[in-house]
UniProtKB/TrEMBL annotation:
UniProt-recorded name of the protein: Rod shape-determining protein MreD
Protein's UniProt keywords contain Cell division: no
Organism expressing this protein natively: Zhouia spongiae
Alphabetical UniProt keywords: Membrane, Transmembrane, Transmembrane helix
Keyword Cell wall biogenesis/degradation: no
Parts of the chain that traverse the membrane: 5-22, 28-46, 53-69, 75-94, 115-140, 146-164
Length: 169
């Protein structure tokens, strides 16, 4: 089996287990829950020929989280949404490296990675919490949840990327 395929499969299952067994039980101040499983979507290899597989796997990881969280499909909807808009964000943040298919997210600068992850994480959380709350009368609660959960998720995702990235010599 291809080394990249093994990494994708392992990352898929490890992030699901981490989310379901650990991070779903973190509840800071009654409304802040980190969603680190979206690292799978953020770090999926950038190849145009795998787009349909990528969107399907994004749906699948969201659906599995929904099943374990009993959340009625909001994670699946949010995951498919950011998977669909990911190429636009990649093109905007990374430019030519994305256009020529030479982009490796792990080898980009921390600032570019942070911007890329911030955009997708906040978009994911905005869709997720809007579908969860589904009311414009609670707009302040929605924005508070998006902001603070997004900050915690972003910090954890950056920490995991730094901890688990291989050092180049």
């Amino acid at each position: 089996m291809n080394n990249d395929l093994i990494k994708i499969i392992v990352r898929f299952f490890v992030l699901i287990l981490a989310q379901v067994l650990v991070f779903n039980h973190v509840n800071l101040f009654g409304y802040i829950n980190p969603y680190v499983y979206i690292l799978f979507i953020l770090l999926f290899p950038v190849k145009k020929e795998t787009r349909m597989l990528f969107i399907f796997l994004s749906f699948l990881i969201g659906l599995i989280i929904d099943i374990f969280s009993d959340s009625g499909g909001v994670h699946a909807a949010a995951c498919v949404s950011i998977a669909y808009m990911r190429p636009v964000v990649l093109r905007w943040v990374f430019g030519n490296a994305y256009e020529y298919q030479t982009l490796k997210i792990a080898s980009t600068s921390l600032g570019q990675r942070s911007l890329y992850m911030t955009i997708l994480i906040l978009t994911h959380h905005l869709i997720l919490f809007w579908l969860e709350i589904f009311s414009f009368t609670s707009i302040l609660l929605l924005l508070k949840k998006v902001l603070f959960t997004g900050i915690l998720t972003l910090c954890l995702c950056i920490m995991f990327m730094i901890l688990f990235s291989r050092k180049k010599r």
